[in-house]
């Protein structure tokens, strides 16, 4: 009994400093991100959207929806849905616009999740490379949308006369005072911390306990033919499996793995492969309810299919580049 208590104290002694450091980074990062959103910083990034719509043969007004996506994914998609329902965009033009939206939807997550939460967990080097890889994937999808619009769209896909029926003024002006914005940012930050840190504490403690008492590589040796083929260590299997169900927990699993098992390239590749598999979960849990709610079942299915196909394609290309033995 005493030995169990001693082990528990030793475990908590090891976990507590790491968890406190990560929680502090998350608290500062989440608050800074929410302040940036409250003061409209994100919209300056989204202002680049107008440069993408013209080469894609889309009206400048579509840039408003793309701008809105960087601040609110739901609002951005709802604006595009309004353009489609009004007849401004046909189905093909709407799919192109949704594809171009990808990078700007990703921008929001950089400020609200990747920088304040994921990078502190993974560490600066691995975290920055992983987030950069995800940003590159999102940007590649957006560029694909621009190129597709330039080739596939013409005036036949856009009815500019429908603009008279569409409110294309963009997001409403924010009349809150600076103090009110900061107060709301603090409230949102506390809500995020209250949801994230307890779960992080439990998962982190379990992961550290697991890797301390068990040889992870031995337990995952059954997967060596697959991981070996990809050039990944056996320890990538639990990382991928956990990441498939929960991205934060997957990052914690990777961070808790013994030092030296993963290289920078194999660590990032493992997380990206977990991202591929997580699409199956996230599609049923989030994408289908969200997209069907915005577009209806028929067109929502098309949006999900295009989004998923492009993400799978570019994540696969990125993983192949990461694991290529030529560098």
What does this structure look like?
The radius of gyration is 22 Å and the shape is globular. It has a domain at 214-327. Helix 1 (2-38) crosses helix 6 (91-122) and helix 12 packs antiparallel against helix 13. The chain contains 14 helices and no strands. The chain has helices at 2-38, 41-46, 50-53, 62-71, 73-86, 91-122, 124-152, 178-213, 216-219, 224-230, 236-245, 247-255, 264-295, 297-323. The chain is mainly α and 327 residues long. InterPro entries: MJ0871-like. The chain crosses the membrane at residues 22-42, 62-81, 93-115, 127-153, 197-214, 226-245, 266-284, 304-324. Keywords: Membrane, Transmembrane, Transmembrane helix. This is Nucleoside recognition domain protein.
User: SSE order in H/E notation?
Assistant: HHHHHHHHHHHHHH
Which regions are unreliable across 5 or more consecutive residues at pLDDT < 50?
Answer: 219-223
What proportion of the residues is helical, as a percent range? over 70%
Q: Tally the beta strands.
A: 0
Question: How can the largest sheet be summarized?
Answer: none
Short summary:
It comes from Halorubrum lacusprofundi (strain ATCC 49239 / DSM 5036 / JCM 8891 / ACAM 34). This is Nucleoside recognition domain protein. By secondary structure, the chain is mainly alpha-helical.
Keywords:
mainly alpha, MJ0871-like, Nucleoside recognition domain protein, transmembrane
Write the layout of secondary structure elements.
Blueprint: H1 2-38, H2 41-46, H3 50-53, H4 62-71, H5 73-86, H6 91-122, H7 124-152, H8 178-213, H9 216-219, H10 224-230, H11 236-245, H12 247-255, H13 264-295, H14 297-323
Helix pairs in contact: 1-6, 1-8, 4-5, 4-6, 5-6, 6-7, 6-12, 6-14, 7-13, 7-14, 8-12, 11-12, 11-13, 12-13, 13-14
